[in-house]
Design a protein that fits this description.
With 295 residues, the chain is mainly α. The chain has 8 helices and 3 strands. Strand 1 and strand 2 form a beta hairpin.
Length: 295
Amino acid sequence: MESTTVEPHKAKRGEQTTLVGILVNIGLVLVKGIAGWLGHSYALIADAMESATDIVTSIFVWVGLRTASKAPDQNHPFGHGKAEPLAAMVVSIALVGAAILIAVQSIHNIQVPHQIPAPFTLAVLAGVVVVKEVLFRRVSKVGEEVESSAVKADAWHHRSDAITSLTAFVGISIALIGGPGYESADDWAALLAAGFIVFNAYHIFRPSFGEIMDETPAGDWHQELTEIAMTVPQVKGIDKFRVRKTGFEYFIDLHVTVPGSLTVSQGHAIAHAVKAAIREAKPAVYDVLVHIEPA
C-alpha cells in the first residue's frame, strides 16, 4: 500500500490552526458571557453561545483532521480522507442549531420588556469583532493552502462569530442612542445574526457535501490533465477522466489514447509515465489510475 507524503504536513498545519482557535474561543466565551450578563445584553450572551459552539465544532474539526491524516489500511484502501469533509458538515449542522437557539430566545426577549444594555458592552463587542476577523483571515488562509474543507468551515465559523458581534454592536448602539422604547434593538440584532449564521452554514455545507458525494472538484481539470499527459511521448490525448477529492488529496481515473500499434509493454510503460508526470506536476494527487485506449 502506498503511503502519502502530502497529507500529514497539511493535516498538522490544520490541527495547529484549529487548536489556536479553540483557545481563543474559550477566552471569548468567558469574556462575552460575563459582559453580556453584567451588561444586560442578550445579543452579547447569544454571541457567547455562538463562540461556545465554535469550541465544540473546532474539536470535531481537529478530530476529523487527525483521522483524515491516517494512512490507508486494509479496511480503508482509499485512506480516511472523508473524515475531513464530514467534520465540516458537522460544523454546518451545529451552526444551524446555534442559529435556531439564538432566534428562539431573541423572539422571546423582543416580547418581554428588559433593560437597555450597558455602554461598556460596545467596547467588548468591538474587540471581539477585531479578534474574530483576524482569526477568520488566518484560518481561511491556511484552509486554502492545505485545501481543507474542514479548516475552511472552521474559518467561516469564526467569520459568523464576527458577524454576530457586529450586529450586536449595531443593535446595542441603537438601543443606547434611542433610549427607552428601543430596548429590543439588541434582540433584533441577535435575530438578524441568526440569519447570517444560517447563510454561512450553507456556505460550509454545500462544498463539503459535494466532496462526500465525489463531486468533480472546481477547476479546468480536463485542460490541465491533457497538457500534462501530452508531455509523455506517444500520448495523443485524453478520452475520459474522473477526479475526486478525498480529504487533502485527489484520486484520478484517466483514459489516454495512444497509437494502436504499440505493444502491451509499451502501453504499460506509457501509463506509468503519465501517472508519474501528473503526480509530479500536481503533488496533491495521491493516485492516478491510467487506462490505455488505441487511437
